[in-house]
Design goal:
The structure holds 2 protein chains of 2 kinds. Chain A is α+β, with helices and mostly antiparallel strands. Chain A has 5 helices and 8 strands. In chain A, strands 1, 2, 3, 4, 5, 6, 7 and 8 form an 8-stranded antiparallel β-sheet that branches. In chain A, strand 3 and strand 4 form a beta hairpin. Chain B is built from 9 helices and 7 strands; from the N terminus they run ααββββαααααβββαα. By secondary structure, chain B is of the alpha+beta class. The longest helix of chain B has 34 residues, at 163-196. Classes of the chains: A alpha+beta, B alpha+beta. Chain A binds chain B through residues 3-4, 7-8, 11, 14-15, 18-19, 21-23, 25-27, 29-30, 36-40, 44-45, 47-48, 98-99, 131, 173-184, and chain B through 38-42, 56-69, 71-73, 75-76, 79, 94-95, 98-99, 101-102, 230, 232-240, 269.
């Protein structure tokens, strides 16, 4: 066999070894377990999904602060409603192990007793939460249409049975936009 | 006299190969070639034939198998670069052509694979998964590619005499075989979608929902949207998807061009023997 052929065989062997040896070494490093060799000893995405499935939502909402309008007389209440929107602030603790942004919350406020639209609510500005972080949601409610004010007069104050209809929630998780719309809450 | 020898030596050097050899040694350290992102880091994948980094929702993936395979590819291309460098410096040595052949087309095929993989993937997602495709075009495509490849091989063996033209034709024929392979893969995908997803990917979406799959081809941005009914409401998911070719890829193209030129230009052992015989004959005649 001439030296050229021997070199040819050696080069072919080298090509094969450079492919086969790394694969065998990777499987050998993980005790010939294909899954561990491919994904490592722990799969971070699996851990992330487990975290989502076992979310701690019990402590998600902290203090909810809003103006006490119940002590106002009907005339004062009407002048407050006509003059400016009502602000509600909610302390939220994110249960997620990744950052999340609430881009929008909106909906119509309904008097469930008379099926009248009292006004609307919306998130004042988008709110960012770091992983397991806390922040405050500021929600603005406007109740100032003549129909809404008439309903307030009928109830002698704000109705007790207020619902939210045509609500929407818009979230941003790492640039993925998740939007939910709900007929009623 | 010395100057004449040096001049002869310099003239013999395969300069394309010298440049390609150096570039091949540098290439594994020149950064990633291609990047794929979903959102602003929901999924972030950067890859080259020498490495991969993947993060999903802020978590980094580690795969021993991938790391070792990429290490093998890195060592392989460095060896190929060294072989090409020395083969080009001493093109008339008996081992030169063998060393040149080891890695001459390696970077070229790496570039082709990196372009073809996302291209085929995007085509399958955008065109085949929604359904409604027929097998005919892919079978015809594969058949035409195979016929042309066989015909070119036959014509090359009959009519091509120059080594560079034979090598170039070999490369073209291999590209045609690869195209035929791509058509066959796509035909299999069309067949499987037709058999298991008669209504396309839309058939997997619950009633009232919509799925608009849109993935860019190799480089660019697109948006995939999914919506579904949820009791009294609806949920919608918007996934911005982007792909980009990176700086390392530009160097890979330059390296591939130089290594192909070096391979085509490089003399074969047979050619060297022929030249020697011709010289001997000339001397005899004198």
């Amino acid at each position: 066999m001439n030296k050229d052929k021997i070199l040819g065989i050696l080069i072919s062997l080298l090509s094969i070894l450079l492919v086969v040896v790394p694969i065998l070494a990777a499987f050998s490093a993980h005790g010939w377990d294909p899954k561990a060799a491919l994904l490592g000893s722990s799969n971070p995405l699996e851990t992330q999904f487990e975290n989502i499935q076992n979310l701690d939502t019990q402590n998600m909402f902290g203090n909810i602060e809003f103006e006490d309008l119940s002590s106002l007389s009907l005339n004062d209440l009407l002048s407050v409603l006509q003059g400016r929107p009502i602000n509600i602030t909610v302390q939220v603790n994110s249960p997620f192990s990744f950052p999340i942004t609430i881009k929008n919350i909106s909906g119509n406020l309904m008097c469930n007793d008379h099926n009248i639209i009292l006004g609307n609510l919306h998130l004042t500005s988008e709110v960012e939460f770091s992983a397991h972080g806390s922040n405050v949601l500021s929600i603005t409610c406007s109740i100032n249409s003549s129909e809404a004010l008439g309903d307030v007069v009928n109830h002698g104050g704000l109705p007790d049975n207020i619902g939210i209809e045509d609500a929407s929630l818009k979230l941003d998780i790492y640039g993925i936009i998740i939007e939910g719309t709900f007929e009623s809450l | 006299m010395k100057m004449t020898n040096l001049h002869k030596l310099v003239r013999k050097i395969n300069w394309f190969g010298v440049i390609a050899g150096i570039l091949m040694i540098v290439l594994p350290f020149a950064g990633m070639w291609w990047r794929f992102t979903v959102g602003t880091g929901a999924i972030d994948l950067s890859t080259s034939p020498f490495g991969i980094t993947t993060t999903a929702l802020g978590q980094t993936f580690e795969s021993t198998l991938a790391r070792y395979i990429f290490l093998g590819a890195t060592i392989s291309i460095i060896i190929a670069g060294l072989f090409m460098f020395f083969a080009s410096l001493l093109p008339e040595q008996w081992w030169s052509a063998r060393l040149m052949n080891f890695g001459a087309t390696r970077v070229f095929w790496m570039v082709i694979s990196l372009v073809m993989s996302p291209l085929i993937g995007a085509y399958i997602v955008n065109k085949i998964l929604p359904g409604g495709q027929t097998l005919t075009i892919y079978i015809v495509g594969a058949t035409i590619s195979i016929v042309i490849a066989v015909l070119l091989k036959y014509l090359a063996s009959k009519f091509l005499k120059k080594l560079w033209s034979k090598r170039l034709m070999k490369l073209v024929t291999n590209v045609l075989w690869m195209i035929a392979g791509v058509f066959i893969v796509l035909a299999v995908c069309v067949f499987l979608v037709g058999k298991y997803l008669p209504n396309g990917i839309q058939g997997l979406v619950p009633a009232g929902g919509t799925l608009s799959v849109n993935v860019p081809y190799v480089s660019g941005s697109a948006t995939t949207t999914f919506s579904m009914n949820m009791g009294g409401g609806q949920a919608a998911l918007t996934l911005p998807i982007s792909m980009e070719l990176m700086r390392g890829f530009a160097l890979a193209i330059v390296t591939a061009v130089f290594s192909i030129l070096a391979w085509i230009y490089h003399p074969s052992p047979l050619e060297k023997e022929k030249k020697k015989e011709e010289k001997k004959e000339k001397k005899k005649k004198k």
